[in-house]
Amino acid sequence: MEREVSYKKNNRDIIYVGNLPKELTEQHLKKYFDQFGDVVKIRLMKSKKTNRSKGYAFVQFENSEIAQIAAETMDKYLIDGKALKVHVKDEDQVVKHLFKRGRAMMIKNNKVKHMNSELDFKRKTMKEKLERIMETIKEGKKLEKDEETEEFVNKLKNNLENLKDKQKRFNTDLYDEEIKEYTKALNTVKKHLK
User: Fold this and answer.
1) 43 within 8 A of 58, measured Cβ to Cβ
2) Cα angle vertex 58, ends 95, 106, to 5°?
3) Rounded to an integer, what distance in angstroms lies between the CA atom of residue 172 and that of residue 158?
4) pLDDT of 94-111, one tens digit each?
5) Distance (Å, rounded) from C-alpha 194 to C-alpha 144?
6) Do residues 120 and 186 both lie within one domain?
7) In this predicted model, what pLDDT tens digit does every residue of 11-60 receive, in sequence order?
8) Which residues form a coiled coil (predicted)?
């Protein structure tokens, strides 16, 4: 079934960003490209089957000058060991609905949605545990060195080591904030254990 594609005039304010690491999210892209000027829209292209990144995206800026500077600066920039391929969309036209989201995923892909929600739940649970522990510390109480606290400390250590390993392996700064957060939490928890 062919679908009709409509086009709009390209103001040369949209750049193509290719050869992206699969783990990179729209938030990470925004962090990288916000340094050049206001990012209007980002569209990270994802697989309909797996909902994972296809390794390329489109970023729209306020104007063509910012887009040109961003494209020139970020072309061949290394992220997680991969050299980006970045250029201003040079066709006369771009697809009209480039930044609109696709249709909802099919029912058979509920497994992917379920996996994503499970990861979100684990992150939320970890954050809630950390908040409870920090609240106990703020109240001036010492933490009991019980099984739950030890398990939590071990998870924090594992998460911290995994992030440091990724950062070192890919020579990136993407995980700096998370590493700082986990390090601070781990040090605080260790200080207040009985």
Assistant:
1) yes
2) 75
3) 19
4) 555 555 554 333 333 444
5) 6
6) yes
7) 678 899 999 998 888 888 998 999 998 888 888 888 888 888 899 998 98
8) 146-173
